[in-house]
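Case study 2.
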Amino acid sequence: MFTINDLDPDALISRLAGPLSPHNRAAFRAAAEDALTRVPCWGEGAVYRAVLAPGMRVRVISGPLHDQIGLLAVLRPHERVLVLMHLLGGEQRVELARSAIEAV
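Prediction:
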């Protein structure tokens, strides 16, 4: 179910990505529009991956770090990501498969 604000792109971007500078808002919108043009739509119930951007909080959804929360640092080539996580008493960089995380 959608609300009236879902029809306003700026309100939707604010809800999804939080406060952004005008430059980052434009980059986020362009990336989202580009991603949506490449997502096949099979009608109601289709699953879409959230657009991820550096700085977003993410949760690990598979593997030995399941349910750990971190900060997305870098989107790497070949469906890889670099996540900053608090592990072993400090901040650690962890490289994961893109499919192993979701936005929080």
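The helical segments are 9-17, 22-37.
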